Amino acid sequence: MPFDRSELRRVMSHFATGVTVVTTHDGQGRCHGLTANAVCSVSLDPPLILVCVDKRAESHPAFELSQAFVVNILGEGQEELSRRFAVSGGEKFDGLPCRNGGTGAPILDGALAYVECRVVAAHDAGDHTIYIGEVESAETGDGHPLLFFRGSYRQLHRD
Ligand SMILES: Cc1cc2nc3c(=O)[nH]c(=O)nc-3n(C[C@H](O)[C@H](O)[C@H](O)COP(=O)(O)O)c2cc1C
Questions:
Q1: Which atom of ligand 1 is nearest to the CA of 51?
Q2: Cα distance between residue 106 and residue 71, in whole Å
Q3: Pairing label, strands 68-73, 113-125
Q4: Which residue puts its alpha carbon closest to atom 14 of ligand 1?
Q5: By alpha-carbon position, which residue is closest to atom 13 of ligand 1?
Q6: pLDDT tens-digit readout, 72-101
Q7: Interatomic CA distance for residues 142 and 156, integer angstroms
Q8: d(Cα 112, Cα 110) in Å, to the nearest integer?
Q9: Ligand 1 centre from 126 Cα, in Å?
Q10: What are the φ/ψ torsions at residue 147 (nearest 5 degrees)?
Q11: How far apart are CA 132 and CA 76, in angstroms?
Q12: Could you give the percent of the chain with pLDDT greater than 90?
């Protein structure tokens, strides 16, 4: 019998993560994006990172169309932005300051850091697709991260 999904979710919620908004586009000028914490650095040589995208996400087809994405790592003041991108569909980019990277995927203003990638592999993984991207550009800003732990947004405790 498969392990209970809500129990897996509960246990894995004890793994504290950062929070990102992963953005992409549909090849026809429309931007898409979702809040994601299933993001991981994979390889330094070549430089690869991965993101796991739910097959039911409205933005999922855009990853196939663009073969590109940007991982925007959120800062502690960007909880509202995370909530906006955790809702399915809608006009998430309305009034949102951003610019297009070389891949055409949007880079959000004010993120703690971003990593822009071209998809080099896509692996079927249950109800998600694992997109592995080769890094084309990346930059950091200033500040502290937004965190997610046991289903709640958190901030780093500072001394
Ligand atoms: C903190 C947090 C982390 C999340 N991580 C992921 C993730 O790694 N992959 C994913 O597919 N969805 C993740 N989600 C859920 C998506 O953000 C959510 O399903 C969103 O509505 C998808 O948007 P879309 O349907 O417009 O593409 C996460 C949500 C939250 C709040």
A1: 8
A2: 10
A3: antiparallel
A4: 36
A5: 36
A6: 999 999 999 999 999 999 999 999 999 999
A7: 14
A8: 7
A9: 16
A10: -120, 160
A11: 26
A12: 97
| C-alpha of 56 from chain center | 15
Question: Ligand 1: does its nearest atom lie under 6 Å from the Cβ of 64?
Answer: no
Q: How far apart are CA 137 and CA 151, in angstroms?
A: 31
Q: Which fold, 19-146?
A: Pnp Oxidase; Chain A (2.30.110)
For residues 32 and 62, is the Cβ–Cβ distance under 8 A? yes
Counting every residue written for the chain, the total comes to: 159
For the whole prediction, is pTM greater than 0.70?
yes
Q: Which residue, chain included where needed, has tokens 């309305």?
A: 94
The label of the residue with tokens 């500040």 reads: 143
Q: From CA 142, how far away is CA 136, in angstroms rounded?
A: 21
Burial 4-33 (b: 16+ CB within 10 A, else e): eeeeeeeeeeeeebbbbbbbbbbeeeebbb
pLDDT given at position 159:
55
